[in-house]
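C2 domain-containing protein
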Amino acid sequence: NGTFFMINTCSNEYLRSLGCLSLTVDYNFPKKALVVTVVGARGLPAVSQGSSDPYVKLTILPEKKHRVKTRVLRRTLDPLFDETFSFYGVSYSALPDLTLHFLVLSFDRFARDDVIGEALVPLRGVDPSTGRVHLTQDITRRSTQVRNERHVCQSCLLSSKVAPTSIGNRLRK
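Structure:
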């Protein structure tokens, strides 16, 4: 409908921090789809040789059901992605309970990609029913809660595997 609202939660400290992420949130009522555009980021820290090769992974929490990522932009600290993702089957009434999790990474051809930081955007209080909402959010260090959840899950998986002694007994038979 052309209406455009802006909510700025980016601090002026982004130049000394991990940067700031810019995005838009909209809702397509006929298609029952949440529409998120990753516009870009500014002030990202250099990962190597004075630059980064950034990209963004987006997950909708708490289910972690929807996962997407932007393309990698080479040698920039102020990437403009302008990539739109539609998440179908997300009811409008569920929006206040959802949080958008943006993980900002720098591509590394020879090793694991470097995590620059993350931005969590709760959709409670964001009302895209009257038009597209533009948001900016500080990128912060990756939270220990997210890392600990992954560590706990890996620990659960490891503890549910067969004990090494029983594997050895099976191999001898």
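The beta strands are 4-9, 20-28, 33-42, 54-61, 67-69, 80-88, 99-106, 114-122, 132-138.
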